[in-house]
Predict the structure.
Amino acid sequence: MSRGHRDERGAIAVMFALLAVMFMSIAALGVDLGNAWAQKRQVQAGSDLATEAGAGVKGANLPASGSVHSCTYGNAGALATDQSVKDIAGYLASQAYPSGTGTAYSSMLANLPVALTDCSMTNGEVVYGTPVKTGSTWSVTFNKNQLSLVSPPKTVDFGFAAIMGFRSVDVNGVSTVEIKSPKFSALPFYAFSGCDYGPQTLQQPNNGHAQSPVILYATSDNANATLNSIDPDSYPVDTSGTVTEPLTIHGSGFSNVQQVGFFEPGNAVTGPPPVTISPPSFSVSPDGKTITIPDLPNQTRGVSGVQEYWFVRVMIGGKWSTYTSDSDGNVTNSPMLTIGDPPLLCGQGSNSGNFGTLLLAHNPYSGWDSIGAANVALGLTNSLAIYPTGVGSSDGTCSSAQPQTVMWGPSGTDGTNCVSTDTGMSSKVATGGFIGKGSSAPSNGSYLLKPNGKTKCANGGNSEATTVLLSQTINNDTLSCFFLDSSTHVGDVDTAGYTGPPLISDKIYDSPRFAYVPVLQVQPANGGSRDYQIIDFRPCFITDQPASALKGDNASSSNGFITDNNGIVSVEVIFLNGNALPHPPVKNGVINYVGSGEKVPILVN
């Protein structure tokens, strides 16, 4: 073999050796970088879980309620005493994360809440808002509904890559959880504190009275008997079946009485059939002037503390005794029996009902009737929120000059908590928004009570209940249809004091008759120009079912709507206690958290 060939083979061997070292180094670096990437994904997953733990069960730790401090990255620093920080630190410590050894690591792990709130991103940090890193600089804009974690770094040591001078790399995660609310209809009306539970009335401003005449079952019956009074005329709620004193009816013409009836009034409509008793459950005096009832029928004894009232009539010859009622709700010849404390009749004698309309824009509509109808039919274009406590006036009013006030802007503003109002409700708003009739109805043919096929409250639960109102087919669900069992009454779910458990199916959220209404601290003045603080949101259902209604009971002929030749003039709703409702399913999307109701923690970063 010639020397030239030997030199060529030697050069190839040297080149192969050099290439082998390079390929091995690249492979080693690839292995180490792959491991670092896998560790980075693991750290990010741990950061996500830690942040979700910090938000609390169902977002209980949010929004941020304590003070925040200023750091170089902005005025969004969390405090070591915040429960969200404690829960994040607890999760990280339970996972022995980040991995490490030595005194410095042990000290950091034992004092995570402080380490996570020391304004240094290098050892991890908890903030309220979304952290953004530009170059080597971090910035955070405060958002009380967002909780973020820049997780403590985890050191990943290199193996083969060390021969190339790459010893280790630090990896961490950045996670943000934000609380949202399930997306449901919010009606452009308001209730006010003290009149935001139970059956309430939204009524067109006119010269009449918000309190309608009492209308009892068998209105036209005219049996000739006079009922002057009952003694006693009230009882405490008693569901035990024991009454210690009899009920005595005083009057005349009782000699031929066949039945005594206890009539429950409807909510501005004809009431349901009465609870009746026959002899020997009562006795009539020889002179026909008194009726003695030793024991009240169980159905009249009250429902779990619910306040009820019943009107008493007698039947003679198959007809009930006549009665009269005026526009103020005063009834003659039919004494009233109260079970529990008398119910609060909000707005009695008012010319505008007892809750009213919010003046909120809705593009592209113009004119308040068209805007209001669009807000009813299509929903509000922007979210509302609760006014912060301890801010501004204590009288429930607000203005743009007060701190943390958010007012509805020209094109709508999310988080509006200070609103303008108009007492009562325009018939054009109600007729156009609820059933899509009239010049104010949205031009796309939408309306709130358009049947949606989602609720099954007819034909044994096989189809949606519907009815015809002003020649328009609308949804006709009843509130009691959604009760979980047959022993629940309407009166069980609409009182302020109910504490749970849920008594209503989550199917109620599909009903177009279900919505939320903002609650104001005070009743707005008629014709006033003030703006008012939103202090809460109350779920409601459009219906006039009485407190005694049970699952399976049918709706009245109007089921919450009073009409005249011009359209809808009155809407009856029942404000519900949120504790009677289940957690709403997140199936219609979410909106920004409004300050009350269900929270949905969502990982957004």
